[in-house]
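Record type: monomer structure entry
Structure origin: computed from sequence
Chain ID: A
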Amino acid sequence: MHSFPKSSIKAARLLFILYLLILLYILFLTQNRSDTFGEYNLIPFRNILMFFRYYFVYHEFTFLEWFENIFGNILLLVPFGVLLPFVCGRRMPLVLIVLLAALFSIVVEAVQYFSGLGELDIDDVLLNLFGGFIGGSIACRAERAVSRLLDRCAKLFSLTNDPD
């Protein structure tokens, strides 16, 4: 089983905690979501197609609203996929990274729904899943580069005892 340098693991864990705090803020604290209490969408691609239609055909959304909903949901889980193998300290198959990203996204959607701080949307899960796939692909294909970057972060945060 391949493991990563301890300094990379420490940096990944620190960055993952920071990432989760930022995610918590973005998903639960930035907007007044009380008007979505109890709303849900369990039909795949329904809201994705609606956002495309309402932006490109009816021009009812601004570019920012469209971009945030589609690409924001994808980009939210890219760091999850990139950092997860390093947080766990070992190489992980892409399928496992994607499954864990899906589970994480489902939990977030359920918390949003039951807390009244957002709606449950299967399309968000699908877009998050794609983001986890992109991040996991980066982690799997560019493992050495990511490890070196994390090692530099560890040195920046003084998480390593190496003198250089």
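Annotation 1: The two ends are 28 Å apart (CA to CA).
Annotation 2: The first helix runs from residue 6 to 29.
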